[in-house]
Amino acid sequence: MTNFLYKNDLPDDLDLGPMVAIDCETMGLNPHRDRLCLVQMSSGDGHAHMIQIAPGQTEAPNLCKMLADPKVLKLFHYGRFDIAAMFNAFGTLAEPVYCTKIASKLVRTYTDRHGLKNLLDQLIKVDISKHQQMSDWGARDLSKAQLDYAASDVLYLHKLRDRLNEMLVREGRMALAQSCYDFLPTRALLDLEGWPDVDIFSH
Q1: For 75, which of 25, 54, 105, 184 is 20 to 30 Å away at the CA?
Q2: Cβ pair 122, 100 in contact under 8 A
């Protein structure tokens, strides 16, 4: 596993390929209050590329170009939050997307455990640590433990997607899942616009 840490944006010449796993670290769970601190990515090759976002930073042109590229599938685990956090920071909506939490909820109806640690352990036999989850991501200098934790959130999403897709096909829910992924960026915008806890489809 190799971690590459960049300041403010991706290098101009970095090509992460047609499918990129993405995760974010923030100062908290309120995107209007808690700033985006780190964006980590992997093409599924065992390397993690990370961008440390400076306080007040509103631009990351190379990252935003990739987020908006219709030829690049963005893989998330609970993409609803990450999509909203990056849109709130940079004004760019990630599309098209795939979310392993949504896929899990559609096919793993025998459990209520859909966290990334549970999925990796049960479906691809990988054990990751969550000890750094609540650490200070706004620190100027991130520790090796923090970077290793951040990397683990993206390094295995490609394999996890493959396994979940097998289950979606088996259960006849692939088309339904795709419809959910297509709506996910809009769901993130609804969160930012003030409907985080309202079911707009209810009576």
Answers
A1: 54
A2: no
pLDDT tens digits for range 26-50 = 999 998 999 999 999 999 999 999 9
Of 13, 14, 158, which is closest to residue 76 (Cα–Cα)?
158
Overall residue count recorded for the chain in this entry: 203
Domain coordinates in residue numbering, the chain: 2-193
2-193, CATH topology level = Nucleotidyltransferase; domain 5 (3.30.420)
Statement: the pTM of the whole predicted model exceeds 0.85: yes
CA-based angle 54:94:58, to the nearest 5?
A: 25
Lowest-pLDDT range, 25-29, 118-122, 126-130, 139-143? 126-130
What is the spatial distance between Cα 64 and Cα 55, in angstroms, rounded to a whole number? 18
